[in-house]
Amino acid sequence: PYSQLNAYSAQSDGRKSLSSSKNGFTVDAKFIPRIRMFKIILSCCLFLSLANLASAQSKYAILAEDAAGMWGQADGSGAGNDIVRAAFAAVGDQVVLSIVPYNRCKAHVLNGLAIACVGMSKSEDLNGKILFADVPLYTTVSTLFVRKSDAHKYTKLADIPSQTHVGTVLGYEYPSLVMQLFKDRNWIASDAPSEVHSLKKLAAGRFNLAVANLDALKNADYLLKQAGVSDQVQVAFEVEGSETFIGFARDDKKALLALAAFNRGMQIIKKNGTLDKILQQWKSKLATSSPSPTS
User: Fold this and answer.
1) H helix count then E strand count, the chain
2) How many CB atoms lie within 10 A of CB 227?
3) Model's pTM, two decimal places?
4) What is the distance between the terminal CA atoms of the chain, rounded to a whole angstrom?
5) In the chain, which end has fewer C-beta atoms inside a 10 angstrom radius, N or C?
């Protein structure tokens, strides 16, 4: 560009403004300010283009459940949500969480309307449809609850007869043993929007038992207090454990990028102590909190 500018100058005013030497080219002094300005403008345009490209590649919109106890709450807080945010931040990416009922969270990822959903578990009906992160966010144990007045009737699986109505959550995945029991014993699933609603219905006599996925932060005492039924409902017994992940849409390019970023980020926050710090903060909240009954 410099040689073209000076060649044009030499042709227009007859002066020799471009000369060669062993050290290179000499530019007419009157063009230097223009060249400097051109370089500044070019640099600014390049910087803005790269910034926009980086921004577009590093922002992910992800769905999360609104009723996952201390792992994910309606206001967007929760240990699981904090872990997801920290993992993406560890690799320099941004994540925007939209809080929705779990059934919508799951359906949107399956239908390609969202790239990921926080709080999914592996199950037969999701095989080949969802990509799961390398490591789970947490582990759970599917546990049966019973009204205290009926506790003597249900002390083990063999006590539960065929055609028993069992409270479940719409869209939730349950361990294979639980699902097999529904099939083999013809248990009747009675869906509710959340585990809290399910326990409320159990207390009201709408069904015989309710199943909930319990863990270190969402234990039986916490759920019963949230439902306001601690004096009416109790744990019957545990059934089987499972793991809870963030699940990603299988056929979405951006979902694949997000999955790779999250996996890298999880490795980082496990090594640098961020993951343990988040879990400890929420365990402390659990120890000092007294959840109020929800409507």
Assistant:
1) 9, 11
2) 26
3) 0.75
4) 71
5) C
* Residue type present at position 212: A
pLDDT of residue 66 exceeding 60, the answer is: yes
Residues 67-95: what's their mean pLDDT? 96
Strand 19-21 relative to strand 24-26, pairing:
antiparallel
What's the CA gap between 259 and 266, in Å, rounded?
11
Q: How is 201-224 classified by DSSP, letter by letter?
A: HHHTTSSSEEEEEE-SSS-HHHHH
Length of the chain: 295
Distances (CA, A) of 191 to 137, 166, 171, 209: 25, 9, 9, 12
Task: Compute φ and ψ for 19, nearest 5 degrees.
Answer: -130, 155
Cβ-based burial of 96 (10 A; exposed 0-12, middle 13-18, buried ≥19): exposed
Residues 6+ apart with CB under 8 A from 75: 99
To which residue do tokens 């499972």 refer? 242
Tell me the three state secondary structure of residue 85.
Answer: helix
> Which amino acid, one-letter code, is at 216?
A
Contacts (Cβ under 8 Å, ≥6 apart) of 1 = 35, 38
Cα(108)–Cα(105) distance, rounded to whole angstroms? 6
Residue located via tokens 């009926």: 150
Q: Which residues sit opposite 233 in a β-bridge?
A: 147
Write out pLDDT tens, residues 210-248.
Answer: 999 999 999 999 999 999 999 999 999 999 999 999 999
Q: Which helix (H) or strand (E) holds 270?
A: helix 253-271
